[in-house]
Amino acid sequence: MDENILKKIKALPPLDDTVLKIQRICVDKNSSLSDLVQVVESDPMLTANILKSSNSPLYGFSRKIKNIAHAVSLFGMATVRGFALSSAIKQNIKINLEPYNINNNIFLDISTLQSMFMFKWYSKVDKSLLDILQPASFMMEVGKIIIAHELIERRKEQAFQEALLNVTTLDALDALEKEYVGFSNEEITAKIFEQWNLESELVEAIQYSRTPEKAPEHIKVCARALHVVQTAVNIFAQLSDASIQNALVLLEEYRLQKEPFLETYEQFIQ
Questions:
Q1: Distance of alpha carbon 166 from alpha carbon 192, whole angstroms
Q2: Which residue from 143, 241, 259 is spatially nearest to 192, judged by alpha carbons?
């Protein structure tokens, strides 16, 4: 991996104390929802960011979520952890996604939709995996922030934008990212997670999300789920007819039930 990129990752500020406490609570089987609420409420900025995220129209709640206790009861620990990590990214990394021909709001909407789709889908499949899948799905596009920054710094953003106009698949996008900066979104996201000492399952789920067949056996199920969601929701299409059909092909390949996925899709298009 490019030494300049590695230096940028290593230069990222560590997660602040509040996010670290949230991390510890979420991986501690003996912790409670009230423990999480207490920690989040001690940080006014994080509280505001989580409430803003949880009230996104993409979640479709009829009533406004006014406090953290309400958010935690609705979403659970794993999703709130994803909100906290997302907030940390926004505070520590300048976001400019112009090289990808999208603005910051669209990028954040895509990440939110990926996370929400995963939450509703795997709540029907296996809730125990959401501890990994929720924060992973919320954060799996983070590497694009670093890639975009590097493209702008190298003055390659215009050439990348023009090349991107001829790219329509995630595999082709991976190849384009590697051509211009030497690594893919998933590789850099995994390195960021490593830098922040997140658990190995989370790092590996992201690392192998585009190549689940290469994942260690205990990670395959999470990597496959992330691959399906990213196929359905990405910078090219968000739950379009074509992207859903591509996701269904993956479900068949991975021998996953189609019904829970299609039920989730129907919830979003109603």
A1: 29
A2: 143
Contacts of 138 (CB under 8 A, 6+ apart): 79, 82, 83, 85, 86, 111, 112, 114, 115
CB of 210 within 8 A of CB of 77?
no
Give the pLDDT band (50/70/90) at residue 38. very high
If one compares 12 and 237, the residue with the highest pLDDT of the two is 237
Q: How far apart are CA 51 and CA 62, in angstroms?
A: 15
- DSSP-based three-state secondary structure for 192: helix
At residue 53's C-alpha, the angle toward residues 168 and 212, to 5°, is 40
Mapping DSSP onto H, E and C, the string for 2-33 reads CHHHHHHHHCCCCCCHHHHHHHHHHHCCCCCH
CA 232 from chain centre, in angstroms, equals 13
Other Cβ atoms closer than 10 A to 255: 7
Span 99-106, mean pLDDT? Answer: 91
pTM higher than 0.70: yes
At residue 1 the predicted structure's pLDDT band, cuts being 50, 70 and 90, is low
